Structure formats: structure tokens, C-alpha cells
Task: inverse folding
């Protein structure tokens, strides 16, 4: 192999670490799943956070949390800036949502997942926990088919044209929130359908990459910024287009963002701005969902399903695991 073709050391390590991330999200998912349906969002979230942190600290990485549970004073664990791993490996950025869809888990409704991304150090957007305007479509469309600053009507018409179908054959995914009343009406005026979800827009954005399975062509609206970066990481691997803009509508939020390196509060982020480098994303189902099945507790085994995306090669792996020896391996 010529030197130019040889993978760099960080790529080799990243390749090995790809499967290590599965263990991290599996453990978080199992911990949260034990509290499914208990109506206790906080407890389920905390269980996932603890499990994820414990596993991350075992990895041979010099990791920094860039998307986490919040800032240090309000989040005792997995706070933004926390260093993770045993320090022996490469410098990496870590983005986590140990339990994405806490309410879904607490109500045992479909779609809650444990999710994380890992990338070369300094390449994931370090975003504060604020809202973000987002737009995403799947792969196969010309660059610029949709744009965050175009109207919903313009975007639906442009997408329908690029897909070669009437707008009535387009379905948009939107978070079911009062803030989206006008957006939903505008989309419906084009003839397109709107599927509303109560939570979980990391998966919602990923749905656009597999319209045949999910029936979703476009994601539109306002969700949280951390979830935006995690979804961008996955899209970098699978393909698709995405744009985001932080909603920094108070002085306090602008200050916080500035401290994290956001110089222009109105900046439009492309997919590559949200996740610039090689990235690996792992997601394990907590409750059953369209992307991954939820954790199943058997008499002697625990089964999990995880999907892992790797941008360097674009490989998507689905890993079904059967776990035993719960005491020994902290799966209790
Ligand atoms: C959003 C969405 C997430 O929570 O963050 C939402 O991106 C919170 O927004 O997927 P609201 O304040 O409107 O509830 C999720 O649905 C779950 O974390
Ligand atoms: Mg969370
Ligand atoms: Mg979340």
C-alpha cells in the first residue's frame, strides 16, 4: 500500500473504536429500559447518563464532551467540557444524548434511543443546549434543493420537483409543538402531508435518508441544537442534506454560545459545519422504534439492537446483541 493510501493512525483507531461505541450506547439503553414506563423521566435519564459515562471512561481515548447534558454547574456528569476516556488514545470530540426522548421512555412509547457520536477532536459543533431551526432531506437530490431560509412552500415544491412527484406525495416530519402551527399549515397548503412526532428528532432527521421505509421526505422545524449535531453526524455517514441555525434570542444565550466559540449568532450551519471531520454515530433502541428495536428483557438474556454509522466509509451496521452475565458486566 502506498503511503498516501495508508490510513492515518487516528483513522485506524477510529475504525477500531466504531464497535466500541456500540457497547456504550447498549449499556445506556439497557439502563434506561429498566425504567421504561415508570413515568419518571429524570430517573431513566440519570440511569442512562451513569451507564454511558462509565463505559466511555473505559475507552482508549482522550475525549472531550462537546454536546452533553449541559454546563458543568447544572450537569454533574457528561457536562460540556468534561474529559472522558482513559487518556491513552486519540483526541476526540464526544456528543451524547444518553436518553433521547426521555418522555417516550417514561411513557414506554416508541422512539426513545441512547445515542452518541465521536469525531476527530475539534470537528463537532460545540453547541449550547438551545433551540435550532433545522431542515433535512435524504441523499440523491441536487445540492441546494432545499434551503433553511426559503419558505416551507418553496422547499416542498422544490423537493417534489426534484423527486419527480406532486407535492401531495411528499411527507414532512415536524415536532408536534404549538410553535409549529404556522409551519404545519404552510406545508399542508402545498398538498403535502405532515407527520407529527411528540419527541425524538435525531431519529426524525435520519428518517429522511430512508423514505421508502419511513415514508418521510423532509424534516422541518425547531428542535434542540444538541440533537441537531447528533443527527448531522449520522447524515454525514448516510448522505443527505441538512442546515441548521441556533436560536440565540437572549443576551444570556448569545454569551453562552460565544464562550463555546460561536462568533456569529445568526450563522447558517451546513451539514459539514455541524460535523466537519470523520465521525462515528451509534444508536441503541430503548423503546421500539422505526430505526432500532427496543431493549428486550428475557429470563436469562437481554437483547439490544444498535445501528452504527461511520462517515469515513459510509458503512451502516446493525448489531443485535444478546447479553448475559449481567452482574459481571454492569448490565444490572
Ligand atoms: C427537542 C427535540 C428532541 O425534545 O429537543 C425536544 O429536538 C425538546 O423540545 O428530540 P421542547 O422544548 O419543544 O420539548 C426532544 O423531542 C427529545 O429530547
Ligand atoms: Mg437527553
Ligand atoms: Mg434529547
Result:
Amino acid at each position: 500500500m502506498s503511503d498516501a493510501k495508508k490510513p492515518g493512525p487516528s483513522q485506524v483507531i477510529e475504525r477500531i473504536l466504531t464497535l466500541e461505541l456500540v457497547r456504550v450506547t447498549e449499556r445506556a439503553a439497557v439502563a434506561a429500559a429498566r425504567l421504561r414506563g415508570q413515568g419518571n423521566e429524570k430517573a431513566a435519564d440519570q440511569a442512562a447518563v451513569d451507564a454511558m459515562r462509565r463505559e466511555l471512561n473505559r475507552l482508549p481515548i482522550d475525549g472531550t464532551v462537546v454536546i452533553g447534558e449541559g454546563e458543568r454547574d447544572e450537569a454533574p456528569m457528561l457536562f460540556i467540557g468534561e474529559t472522558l476516556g482513559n487518556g491513552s488514545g486519540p483526541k476526540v470530540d464526544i456528543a451524547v444524548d444518553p436518553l433521547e426522548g426521555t418522555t417516550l421512555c417514561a411513557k414506554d412509547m416508541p422512539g426513545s434511543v441512547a445515542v452518541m457520536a465521536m469525531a476527530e477532536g475539534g470537528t463537532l459543533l460545540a453547541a449550547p443546549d438551545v433551540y435550532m431551526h433545522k431542515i433535512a432531506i435524504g441523499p440523491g437530490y441536487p445540492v441546494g434543493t432545499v434551503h433553511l431560509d426559503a419558505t416551507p412552500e418553496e422547499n416542498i415544491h422544490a423537493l417534489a420537483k426534484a423527486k419527480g412527484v406532486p407535492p401531495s406525495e411528499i411527507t414532512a416530519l415536524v415536532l408536534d409543538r404549538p410553535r409549529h402551527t404556522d409551519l404545519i399549515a404552510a406545508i399542508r397548503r402545498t398538498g403535502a402531508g405532515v407527520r407529527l412526532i411528540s419527541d425524538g428528532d435525531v431519529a426524525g432527521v435520519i428518517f429522511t435518508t430512508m423514505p421508502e421505509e419511513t415514508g418521510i421526505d423532509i424534516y422541518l422545524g425547531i428542535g434542540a441544537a444538541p440533537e441537531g449535531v447528533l443527527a448531522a453526524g449520522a447524515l454525514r455517514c448516510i448522505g443527505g442534506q441538512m442546515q441548521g441555525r441556533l436560536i440565540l434570542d437572549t443576551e444570556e444565550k448569545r454569551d453562552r454560545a460565544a464562550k463555546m466559540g460561536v462568533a456569529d449568532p445568526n450563522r447558517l450551519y451546513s451539514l459539514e459545519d455541524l460535523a466537519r471531520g470523520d465521525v462515528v454515530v451509534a444508536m441503541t433502541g430503548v423503546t421500539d422504534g422505526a430505526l432500532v428495536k427496543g431493549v428486550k428483557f428475557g429470563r436469562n438474556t437481554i437483547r439490544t439492537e444498535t445501528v452504527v454509522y461511520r462517515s469515513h466509509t459510509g458503512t451502516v451496521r446493525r448489531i443485535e446483541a444478546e447479553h448475559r452475565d449481567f452482574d459481571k458486566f454492569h448490565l444490572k
